[in-house]
Amino acid sequence: MEAVPSPLPDTDSDRDWSELPVDALSAIFTKLGTVEILMGASFVCHSWLAASKSPELWRFVDMTRHKVIFSKRTGILCAMAKAAIDRSDGQIESFWAQKFVTGELLDYIVRRASTLKSIRLVACTFIQWQSLAMLAAKCPLLEEIECSYHKMPADFFKCVGRVRPNLKRLRVHMHYFDQDELENELIKHVLEEGGEVFEEPFEQREARRNADAFAIAENMHELRLLQIAGHNLTEIGVRAILDGCPHLECLDLSSCHDIYVDGQLQARFAMIRHVRLPGLMMVTAQISVPSVRGSLWLIFSEVSLALCLRRWRWGMVPMAMTKSLRPLTPVST
User: Fold this and answer.
1) Cα gap 246→223, rounded to integer Å
2) What is the mean pLDDT of residues 259-268?
3) Minimum mean pLDDT among 5-19, 116-130, 148-162, 307-321: which range?
4) F-box domain: which residues (predicted)?
5) Beta strands in the chain (DSSP E)
6) Is 210 exposed, middle or buried (0-12, 13-18, 19+ CB in 10 A)?
7) What value does the mean pLDDT take over residues 309-321?
């Protein structure tokens, strides 16, 4: 005798999702992002709105890499961020945002988020460095700062290092530009206009290009992670960072194309867990470096072959080193 299949449930008897308990709704909302909760779940019904206001959901606020960030006006996005901060009820630990943050919003965070441990701002060009430094001073638990694709002066790093000497992670990515090429173009233009050009002393030029690195090295001794990709620092600045930040575990120098890596720097990089070096041409060089644990094999990736060859012509790189470099497939960084 064939089994009779059970009838499908009547659509009219489908579950009423508004009757879910608050704990269950909160567990579901943890799978959603900040923007999805603010613009979606909060508007379903009153019970969902109530569940979306649980402070536990707002300890980590991430308003980056979402299409809404690129389509809504700054005022609307700032209002959304303020709503998220208010819902945290003073328990927010991380605030990440892209593009829209203003100095007024940073002041709002300072007044309501003294528990903040991480702030990451990407391409937030509306803010001044003093506002972010003030936030660092007012948030005693702060361990991580990112301010990428918005140039910060050396004074910013000095100030933050003084008020937050125990800062653990700093991220300041920039779009690299060839400063030598830019300066040569400016000199050419001045000469064409009949102007006079004065050569900048080498020491002064190095100090200017490494000002950020020197400020970090002198004021942020407890850093574990430093991402300074795209900056125009040289090997002098890198050595200063390695001297001033002895606890570094991760160092990102990608797209810093003015760094010459000699044997001494190679040995020092070997003592850091993760190092990312610059380059448009991917090359691999294996260098045996002695350490307290014996022989370590350090794989240097993303070394600029063109830079090495250029500096060899200047007499700055031994030919033996250029022969040990093997070009791989070009990649974007």
Assistant:
1) 8
2) 92
3) 307-321
4) 17-62
5) 60-63, 94-98, 118-122, 144-148, 169-171, 225-227, 250-252, 274-276, 283-291, 294-301, 326-327
6) buried
7) 38
